[in-house]
């Protein structure tokens, strides 16, 4: 969705000139017909309709998007000069803070919302997020809060948040699987609603509060382990989607291989949905070449289970004939003896709730973006 600044930039005019023309106020009369026409054409080209949001206020005040919400909510984290600049930008653009969202901070319900995502394979739940939600719920209960779990639609995902805010049902939100340009993040910023994310370190210029685990380092320690075991042809089974964490894991793979003096062959990387049978087929493809890997890194444990399924069908011995690693350390990985990257999920959950508690009470923590380290759990899939 285009912004007022993008319209102004395309028309090569200041933001307030574009606002005046699209708003139709008296300031537009001072502009030449040619300039007015250029602004209207730019708006049409970008399919933009004037609707002032916190993003527009941030652009005019030349501050980060997250700063606007804090400034308009009188946060002590924002300097008086910046607060004044934001307020003036809001006044000029006619922006009014959503009072319903502000009431979330003053009329608390004791309920926090979390949106459950539909997995690639709905029949196989995500044990990592199961553990995360269990721990967050336990921590919330200790602080007098309850969790409301709802399914997030794939289309217009931000709409459900507006509904929950407008009905005063929730004090704040916990997000996971945050993506580039995530509409939920932008909309919750606009509404001034408290939220914290599990994930965010791989989002460029992220201003929201989050707790994350270093995905890039997670794959790097896997590569280092496999290289130490004597492997040089190391393959990667990863996601088709360009999620920030999956991109980070692939970057970690390339960088660790480069540090080890190993040249990655294009056929060593195969992408697959996070579905067991799809991963099995992808593994077959990965091993079909003449220069096939002797070790396979999987970006998720379900992919590793799919890879082992193919090994069993092909008569390959995991660990002895080919090394295999997963990611997230699902309990099934322990049962099957698969080396996997473990995320400190309890620490993530505790950190997320603590940050959200501060956001809800308008007392943001001094450190609002926390990055934790993963650990490699070594089993016989890489040591036989």
Tell how many strands the DSSP assignment holds.
12
Overall mean confidence score, pLDDT = 88
The CATH first-level class of the largest domain comes to Alpha Beta
- Kindly report the spatial arrangement of strands forming the biggest sheet: 2-1-3-4-5-11
Give helix and strand order, one letter per element, not per position: HHHHHHHEHEHEHEEHEHEHEHEHEHEE
Global Rg: 25 Å
* Structural class assignment: alpha/beta
- Tell me about the biggest sheet? 6 strands, parallel
Strand content: 5-15%
State the CATH topology of the largest domain: Rossmann fold
Shape: globular
Which blocks of ≥5 consecutive residues have pLDDT under 50?
none
Second-tier CATH architecture of the largest domain: 3-Layer(aba) Sandwich
Tally of domains? 3
CATH superfamily (homologous) name of the largest domain: Response regulator
Amino- and carboxy-terminal Cα gap: 53 Å
**SS field, number of helical segments:** 16
Overall helicity: 40-55%
Put the structure in a nutshell.
The chain has 16 helices and 12 strands. It is globular, with a radius of gyration of 25 Å.
Name the features.
384 residues; Rossmann fold; 3 domains; 6-stranded parallel β-sheet; 6-stranded mixed β-sheet
Strand and helix map with partners:
Layout (H helix, E strand, L loop, with lengths): L3 H8 L3 H9 L9 H13 L8 H8 L3 H8 L7 H14 L5 H8 L4 E6 L10 H16 L3 E6 L7 H8 L5 E5 L6 H9 L3 E4 L11 E4 L1 H14 L5 E6 L4 H16 L9 E4 L3 H11 L8 E4 L2 H14 L8 E5 L3 H6 L2 E4 L2 H16 L8 E4 L2 E3 L7
Helix pairs in contact: 1-2, 1-3, 2-3, 4-5, 4-6, 5-6, 5-10, 8-16, 11-12, 13-14
């Amino acid at each position: 969705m285009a912004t007022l600044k993008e319209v102004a930039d395309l028309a090569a005019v200041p933001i307030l000139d574009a606002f005046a023309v699209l708003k139709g106020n008296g300031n537009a009369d001072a502009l030449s017909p040619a300039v007015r026409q250029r602004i209207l054409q730019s708006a049409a080209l970008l399919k933009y309709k004037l609707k002032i949001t916190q993003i527009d206020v941030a652009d005019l005040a030349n501050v980060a998007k997250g700063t606007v919400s804090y400034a308009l909510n009188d946060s002590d984290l924002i300097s008086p000069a910046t607060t004044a600049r934001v307020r003036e930008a809001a006044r000029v653009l006619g922006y009014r803070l959503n009072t319903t969202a502000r009431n979330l901070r003053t009329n608390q319900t004791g309920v926090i919302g979390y949106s459950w995502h539909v997995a690639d394979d709905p029949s196989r739940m995500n044990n990592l997020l199961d553990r995360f939600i269990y721990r967050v719920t336990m921590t919330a209960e200790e602080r007098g809060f309850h969790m409301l779990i709802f399914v997030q639609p794939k289309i217009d995902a931000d709409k459900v948040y507006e509904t929950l805010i407008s009905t005063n049902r929730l004090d704040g939100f916990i997000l996971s699987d945050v993506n580039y340009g995530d509409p939920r993040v932008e909309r919750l910023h606009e509404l001034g609603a408290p939220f914290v994310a599990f994930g965010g370190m791989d989002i460029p210029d992220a201003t929201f509060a989050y707790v994350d685990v270093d995905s890039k380092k997670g794959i790097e320690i896997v590569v280092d382990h496999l290289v130490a075991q004597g492997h040089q042809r190391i393959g990667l089974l990863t996601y088709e989607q360009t999620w920030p964490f999956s991109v980070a894991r692939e970057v970690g793979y390339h960088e660790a291989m480069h540090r080890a003096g190993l040249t990655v062959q294009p056929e060593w990387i195969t992408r697959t949905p996070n579905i067991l049978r799809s991963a099995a087929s992808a593994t077959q493809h990965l091993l079909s070449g003449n220069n096939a890997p002797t070790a396979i890194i999987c970006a998720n444990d379900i992919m590793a289970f799919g890879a082992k399924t193919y090994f069993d069908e092909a008569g390959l011995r995991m660990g002895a004939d080919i090394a295999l690693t997963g990611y997230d350390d699902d309990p099934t990985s322990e049962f099957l003896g698969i080396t996997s990257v473990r995320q400190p999920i309890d620490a993530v959950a505790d950190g997320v709730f603590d940050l959200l508690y501060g956001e809800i009470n308008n007392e943001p923590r001094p450190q609002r973006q926390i990055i934790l380290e993963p650990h490699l759990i070594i089993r016989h899939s890489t040591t036989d």
